[in-house]
Write a structure and sequence with these properties.
8-stranded mixed β-sheet; carboxyl- or carbamoyltransferase activity; transferase; ClpP/crotonase-like_dom_sf; Acetyl-coenzyme A carboxylase carboxyl transferase subunit alpha; fatty acid biosynthesis
Amino acid sequence: MPAELQFEKPLLELRDKIEELKRFTEEKGIDFSEEVAKLEQKAAELERTIYGGLTPWQRIQIARHPERPTTLDYIKSLCTDFIELHGDRTFGDDPAIVGGIAKFEDMPITVIGHQKGGGNTKENIYRNFGMAHPEGYRKALRLMKQAEKFRRPVLCFIDTAGAYAGMTAEERGIGEAIARNLLEMAGLKTPIVSIVTGEGGSGGALGLGVADRVYMLQNAYYSVISPESAAALLWKDATQAERAANTMRILAPDLYEFGLIDGIIEEPLGGVQKAPEQVIRNMRETLHSAFRELLQLSDEELLEQRYQKFKAMGQFTEV
């Protein structure tokens, strides 16, 4: 049974009724085509009403939907000849971040991303729900430096609530690992493109987010802190997450307006999980255009553009 969001419940109930009528027609041989047509029209109108006026909190719920594609799903759909590489050559391998080499439209690339799981509890736990330890970021950096050596562009998929905040991560230096990635990515002499596909949580997201082009899916969010944590800090009550989300301006349109991202990749009504092939098509076009532009630049031009891009963030004008 598909995962259900609370605000989608009336629509899903109506679609269940439509399916029930269709089954009854097949089993009993009674023609309900006119009733089915009316209900389908009503469902289409209800779908436009629900998804056309989503609040920020509802979009965040869609960004966290358990049926959204994972990094490995995107790699499988966008790339060919993917070879996954493991380990940071220091401590071990972190399943919360996957990466390797592949071909995008016959062009060799290095692809890296957070991997939340595969839709079941066992896989989610194995991947630590996409919350990486230090060795995950060190593995990512190892692959990026390898990409620089062999002149391969880097593609990163960001989807994490944040880096793992447990004792084991602190013991192995999670802060240093993320900071090292920020430093090294800023000076990496090969094009980097990052896409926030779901959650873009704090430093855990930034560890793969220093890129020449940063894009977001329409219902994704990118934030210094989760709405629950923000509510706990501001009002000492994590249950006020919806209130926080509605004021934080952490969605794709907000960040594009602020100049913090370079573009928005459209999703179908209800989210990418409703029609992933449509999003893959949009994503492919975006990546094709970005890589074509970036590969024409010299190393010096690439680094200068990246420097100016991040230097411009946070500038303001006094009134």
